[in-house]
Amino acid sequence: MDRDWLDELLAKTDLVQLVSKYVQLTKKGNSYWGCCPFHHEKTPSFSVSADKQVYYCFGCKESGNAITFVKKIESVESADAIKLLAEAAHMPVPEYKGDKKSADLKNKRERLSALMREAALHYHENIYTPGAKAALAYAEERQITSMIKKFGLGYSLGNREIIDYLETKGFTPAEMKEAGIAEQSGDTYYDVFMNRLMIPIINPYGNVIAFGGRLLEKDSKFAKYRNSCQTVLFDKSKVLFALNLVKKKKQREHLDSIIVTEGYMDTISLFKAGFDNVVASMGTSLTLDQAKLLKNYCNKIYISYDGDGAGQKATLRGLDILESVGLNVRVVPLAGGMDPDDVIKREGAAGYKALLDKAVTLTTFKINNLASQYDLSDPDGNSKFAVEAVKVIKKLDNPVEQEEYLMQVHNLTGYSMAVLYKQAELYEEPKIESEPKREPSRRDALTAATDFVLASLINEKPYADFNFDVVPYLTGDNEREAYRLALEKYKMKYSLQSLFNRADERYADYVSGLVNYDFVPGDDRKKFEECVYLIKRRSLEVEKGKLEAEYEATKNIEILSKLKDIEKKLTQMRKSGGFIS
Ligand SMILES: [Zn+2]
Fold it and tell me: Which of 82, 268, 116, 77 is closest to 207 using CA atoms?
């Protein structure tokens, strides 16, 4: 971002005014004082200097300027903090200036945002009308009647009710469709959520961005839950249900941890029981974006998923993502078939609190999970379990931790610690860069070029261009799949994260590597073109080598003509500085 522009933004922002929105400040001399919003205290040790436009806390030593303040208090990344400040200062963010496409998108977002707000308010009003008896009865049965207001729960009164209402507010059915509320059948539009209990999904800025709809009739052929589809406002992989409420809590008091549940009802019922640090992931597998989002709020996460075996593998994969961003993860043990809501109903808040205290680390959870898959009373099952458990433990970098978990395996299997250590030594973690760095070989150069080109395409770098058709020159399945996904993303405007979720499991690691590719300064159009050139040339050379050998062996005239073609292409490439059609 432009330095001058940032300076202007900071000059237009008054830190005292900004902080006053969150903290009651009192003037003393040249500074303003208040209770620190970043640590818990009763006597003010948080000071804001009006002259210097910086803040400092004598208690927890937090300090910074307007941008760091917004970042921390709103739990957002720098770019979003800057956007918020720019909005307040009525300064357009430079990248938007003159960019018609971005401006159109911004207008569209605002328009759909207003539509969603109207819809949520209206669904909420509906829940108190006679037509919504089923919804109230359901809330009563789940014992969440007192949560209807807090979560803004509502009801869809049927086919067209919301559509007619929103039309009176000046919105078109096409807009409703774009917002994910309406669907079209021929010329008519209908409410996709008809006759469902409506759960608004609200982002941390207080905007309704989507809905979850719970079907109330039993034995319906339709799915119990229906979520909004992806819209310009809503990307499921970047959202956590109820994070808006957790954010408010964080602004009020210290936030030590967040409990992550699978579904809306678990979250609502935990809130009702007094746990106000709960969110729902709205799906079993957490995404990298969700993990990063959580990391902005606190460092400790309790995972409180249902206690059934379904989706265990997906669950585990999601949890590794949390650890990969540096979160401290605990898994709440839930007996088979139980969900958090059941525990609250049967044992109350105290019962659930006891479970939180019993939450185990991710590694223990994995070991226990493995143990449940083998029959440990059988010598064969026992040894297989030990081998698999040791693999999990071997992945930990800390020897003290390794010992801790080997002890657990020792307790479960009866194998001596010496044997388990030996097993750990035997198991070699497949390493990618274990060998000392060799001279980059031709193959390495090709790999590096391919990765760079694919990563640039996937990340839609400004210099990346699909017109250089590299596909015929890609040799591996990995690479062809990554290209296919990149093209699909580009055409369909998918987000990076949803693309990652779309990848075939076999290629997910490779694609994830490309998504997180470390670009360096100097990555530009020239490098991109050079890499494309290298890929084409190397692939032609390999092909040429094969054909030469084949011709030697067969003296087949057709092969010779293919060989000539390739040689012609290669010469053409050298002459034209690289580009062949
Ligand atoms: Zn402080």
Answer: 116
> Does one domain contain both 224 and 272?
no
Ligand 1 center from residue 196 Cα (angstroms): 45
**For the segment 43-98, what is each residue's pLDDT rounded down to a tens digit?**
899 999 988 888 998 888 888 899 889 988 888 878 888 889 998 898 887 765 55
Query: 263 and 219 share a domain?
Result: no
The 10s digit of each residue's pLDDT in 1-40 is 677 888 889 888 999 999 998 889 999 888 999 998 888 7
Distance CA 389, CA 383 (A): 10
Let me know whether 87 and 105 are in one domain.
no
What is the whole-number distance in angstroms between the Cα of residue 45 and the centre of ligand 1?
A: 7
Looking at the fold, whether 460 and 560 belong to one and the same domain comes out as yes
Which residues are CB-contacts of 334 (< 8 A; sequence separation ≥ 6)? Answer: 304, 305, 306, 307, 340, 343, 355
Q: In the structure encoding, which two tokens stand for residue 429, read together?
A: 């973690």
**The domain containing residue 109 runs over which residues?**
100-234
Boundary residue ending a domain (169, 199, 234): 234
Taking the centre of ligand 1 as the mean of its atom positions, its distance from the CA of residue 270, in whole angstroms, is: 29
CATH code for position 396: 1.20.50
Whether this model's pTM surpasses 0.70: no
Distance 6 CA to ligand 1 centre (A): 26
Residues 14, 70, single domain; the answer is yes
